[in-house]
Specification:
Shape: globular
CATH class of the largest domain: Alpha Beta
Number of helices: 15
Strand content: 5-15%
CATH topology of the largest domain: Aspartate Aminotransferase, domain 2
CATH superfamily of the largest domain: Type I PLP-dependent aspartate aminotransferase-like (Major domain)
Length: about 425
Amino acid sequence: MDRKTVEQIIDGMGLGDFSQATIRDIQALSRLLEEKTGEEVIHLEMGVPGLQPSEIALKAEAEALANGCATIYPPNGGIPRIKQAASDFVKAFIGVDVAPEGCVPTTGSMQGTFATFMAMRHAFAGTGRDTVLLIQPGFPVQTTQCDVIGLRHEALDIYSYRGKDLIAKLEEIIGQGRICAIVYSNPNNPSWVCFTEEELQGIGQIATRHDILVLEDLAYFAMDFRRDLSHPGQPPFQATVARYTNNYVLWVSASKAFSYAGQRIGVTCISNALYHRVFAPLREKFGVGAFGDFFVGRLMYTLSSGTTHSVQHAMAALMEAAVRGEYNFLSDVREYGRRARFMKEVLLANGFYLVYDNDMGAPLADGFYFTVQYPGMNDLQLTRELMTYGIAVFPLDTMGSTQQGVRICTSFFRREQEPLFTERIQRFHREHQAVQE
């Protein structure tokens, strides 16, 4: 793309060096570039599913609407069908028991995380434990949610802490007494590293010993494609801290694994013990002490009065079919792994290198995201420079990482773009290699 035109548009949007740019800012910029230049931008910035959803969901939601659900308010805690379906799904693919009452549909996992953070803000009020520990890099919106709610937060980049080093560092931080919860995604957005069973066991033991919560974001459910996690009721299962502590909340999303992002639904799965645990600050301020009752009766009620009725039937139908073995929800999303392998090969052959480059000594899984860097640039410079070559990415600087690099998302990348991507990356390397020399 014409460099002068790109820079004029960037400056016109006030994005500067990109240090304050959000994902949607970069998306808006790339769309504007396409409009102004008439050239195609390769969109690797936005974590939006690029696959068609199953007919199972579409049919179930259409039937629910035809049967009149649109005229009826949904229960705050979800319709019985999805609560049972989610409980069965968790048992079949994670291997743990969460009662139906603790499976609460939310308007996307985004609302689930917001409501959970808000519940914690009140449950731990006045206890001195007023801070969540965000294991980074991570989803930047969760940091924003904490800021909006007024919940203190700290960060720990896992780049230098894995295995026993991670557990020791967590023990050091949590032992200081101000942390009320640990938050992470598994697989991790954006690095795609996956915690091992030993790490999860250590995290669970710390949670129990210090009586804190673990909030596990499973937005990319079972998408560690190094193992086949698609068989209900059979190991291997989705790795989880829930096997090692009762102090947990799991966020399961329909957006990525089920390619159902537009309808906005997820399920917040609250452990049986935590659901019924009474917190004195909740009881004193709201008259409802049990964590789960407060989550459903106060938060879900005041935030949205429940989750859209019809989409609950859609997600329930998907979960039911998966549990029966009639729907392999991972078969389609494996395409993300193929795309990642292709792009990694092109990038690594042209001077780029992986930032988060291994998983406890093992190769990373190929999936929805990965991270790369190019020598001689910081992540903000690389983000801006790649845009001039018609490639939109997102800098790690804004995702809590202490490392320099950019996040690559595979979801919008199309097979027919492979030659164009290869040509642009080769040209980028050729021109920047000449500068370095």
